[in-house]
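Technical note accompanying the year-one report. For the benefit of new consortium partners, we illustrate the data format agreed upon in the data management plan: each record pairs a sequence with a structure-token string. No post-processing was applied to the example shown here.
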Amino acid sequence: MRTLIVSGGRIGRGFALSFLKQEPFDRIIGVDNGLRFLYENGIAPTHVVGDFDTAAPELVDYYRKQKNIELRAFNPVKDSTDTQIAIELALELGSTEIVILGGTGSRIDHVLGNIQSMMLAKKRGVLCELLDEHNRIRLIDEETVIAREEQYGDYVSLIPLTTEVTGVTLTGFKYPLRDHTFTSTGSAGLGVSNEILAAEGRIQMKTGVLILIESRD
């Protein structure tokens, strides 16, 4: 089951609407201020969650009155972010794939928190990606192949999420690596802004978790 989470960060309207025309979803979870994008574009969520500290009260009231939409309201003083709560709900619903729109933007603390929250899906073996018009972000802990014709932009970056990622081997890339260990201190330069030169780029690893970012700019 594919689930879309629409969070309250930056959403490029043209990009998002074009993406949604091509990609069907079984469930749509509206998160806090992400409700405005859904409402203004006539997209009906199946679920609504959040503490609604940034959502317009009239929007919350509107969705609260919709009998076919499940709304879960949380106290703003809580231990989880709204996006994390949405990921937990998507997993509770039995999702096999989760896509997050509106999970990036000017609040870098929220972006980093959203990336960390993606580990909830990773631990359950559920594909989860954070998407905007410039980036596709995933977490990987095993061999991953990216076809050059299908990659999301021209650049591929790898940043360690765990303290250490061992045995990283890159083939088909402009800057190959062999059995390299990434650490959380001082190795970022080797993983940022790589490019796929062959028909496909292959990422192999032994232990740890990498943040895989494909960028268009």
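Partners are asked to follow this layout when depositing records. The chain has two domains: 2-133, 140-215.
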